[in-house]
Amino acid sequence: MDLVLEKRKGFVRLALTTGASLLPVIGFGENELYERLRHPLFDPLHKAAYYTARMAAPLFVGRFMTPIPFRTPLTTVFGPPIYVDKVETPTCEQVDALHKQYLAALQRLYDQHKDEFHAHRRQEMRFVA
Fold first, then answer.
1. Which residues are registered as beta bridge partners of 35?
2. Phi and psi of 101, rounded to 5°?
3. How far apart (Å, rounded) are the C-alpha atoms in residues 100 and 120?
4. Within 13 Å and on the Cβ side, how many CA atoms surround 117?
5. Mean pLDDT over residues 43-48, rounded?
6. Helix axes 10-18, 92-117, angle to 10 degrees
7. Mean of the pLDDT values across residues 77-103?
8. Residues in contact with 14: Cβ distance below 8 Å, sequence separation at least 6, in sequence order
9. Closest C-alpha among 37, 34, 39 to residue 62
10. Quick check: 4 and 128 in contact, CB under 8 A?
11. 106 or 129, which is more confident?
12. pLDDT class for 9, splitting at 50, 70, 90?
């Protein structure tokens, strides 16, 4: 489970400027809904599209090689909210501190529920850029 949150801080800045609370949320089972098609012809195209557009657009299949997802349980867990004081113009240090607090809350939430809802994992949750 790779979460692309390492450099994504816009939602934290928005929470600071509006005073909105942040709610840590993790969905378990989403990665098992589909399988990515892996083929020597597709992989270079996929990597080139990712580096050009900065978003992944993999080819995927589900049940019976169709877009129908595999049958797998989906579970969403919520952590306690992180209350945020409103700041008109937040500094980079404030944004970084709140972002670090949010990532730590997500990590605690994952560690608390991983054995129950992600027991068949191949790797632990990672924060990636």
1. 61
2. -65, -40
3. 28
4. 19
5. 78
6. 110
7. 96
8. 20
9. 34
10. yes
11. 106
12. very high
Characterize the bridge pairing of strands 60-61 and 35-36.
antiparallel
Which residues, 6 or more positions from 74, have their beta carbon under 8 angstroms from its beta carbon? 27, 28, 29, 30, 33
CA–CA dist 116, 26 (Å, integer): 13
- Read off φ and ψ for residue 48, nearest 5 degrees: -65, -40
Query: Does the pLDDT of residue 57 top 90, yes or no?
Result: no
Exposed, middle or buried: residue 99 (CB in 10 Å: 0-12, 13-18, 19+)? Answer: buried
Task: Please answer whether residues 106 and 98 qualify as being in contact, where contact means their C-beta atoms are separated by less than 8 angstroms.
Answer: no
Pairing of strands 126-128, 2-4: parallel
Residues with Cβ within 8 Å of 101's Cβ and at least 6 positions away in sequence, in order, are 82
Beta pairing partners, 77: 26
Rounded to 5 degrees, φ, ψ at 61 are: -140, 160
